[in-house]
UniProtKB/TrEMBL annotation:
Topology versus the membrane: Multi-pass membrane protein
Protein's name according to its UniProt entry: P-type phospholipid transporter
Keyword Membrane: yes
Places the protein is found: Endomembrane system
Organism: Oppiella nova
Reaction catalyzed: ATP + H2O + phospholipidSide 1 = ADP + phosphate + phospholipidSide 2
Amino acid sequence: MGIIVRDHSTNEILLLLKGADAVMTSIVVYSDWLQEQCDTMARDGLRTLVVAKKTLTEHQYLDFESRYNQAKCAMTDRNTKISAVLGHLQKDMELLCLTGVEDRLQDGVAKTLKGLQDAGIRLWMLTGDKLETAISIAKSSQLVNKLQEFYIFQSITNRTEAHLELNNFSKKDDCPLIIRGEDLELVMKFYSTEFVELAGQCPAVVCCRCSPTQKAEVVKLIQNRTGKRTCAVGDGGNDVSMIQSADVGVGIVGKEGQQASLAADFSILQF
C-alpha cells in the first residue's frame, strides 16, 4: 500500500510504501539487517511491516501519472496494466524502518479453542502472518501445545516436490500441520483431495502467509471435499471473503473495524 506526497515547503515529491517483508524485500535496496530483524520480531510473536520511500523528480511523477491514468482507462487487462505501471515505480526504494506490533489475544481464547477441540471440531488457523509469527500465536492460543511436535510443510516449486512432501507428511501421525500460502496454492492445484484428506485428520492446521482470496478458497475446498459444515471467524477486512464463503460466518468487532462483523451472519464483541 503506497501514497505519493508533495512537501510544499521544499517541493519534494515522495513515494511512501508499506507492506509485508516477503513482498518488500524485492522492492527495497538489499539489506541483511531487514531479514534478520524481521525474523527476530516474528519469533517474539510480533506482526511486522516494512516501510520504504523513494524521491521522485517532477518528470518521473508526471510520467507515472500519465501512464497510470492510461492503465486505469484500459478496456482489457486493466489490473495487469495497472500492476505493471506500479511495478515500474516501486523498485530500488530506500528502506525507512521496520515496525513490529503485538497482536494480543483476547481473554479466554485458549479456553474457547480447547472447548471447541473437545467438542470434536477441527480447527484451522488461516493468517497472513509470517511463519514464525504464526507458530508463536498458535502456541500462545494453545491451538498447538507448546511441547507438541508439529509438521512444517517444506517449500515446494512443482508437482513432483508436492507429491514427495505429501508422502512425507502422510507418515506423520496425529501431528499439527503448518503450511505457507505459496505451498498451499501448489498443493491445492495438483493434489487438493489428498491434501484435505490428510490435513483433515490433523488435530490443528495453521496456514500462514495466506491472502484473503486463499482463505476463502480453503473454506470452499473443505466444504467441497469433506461435505462438512464450516464456520469461519474473523475480525478484519481481509477475513470478509472467508466469512462469506463459510456456512456460518462470525465477525468480531475489534480494533480492525467493523468490516468483518458487517459481512457476517453473527456479530460478536469477543472471541
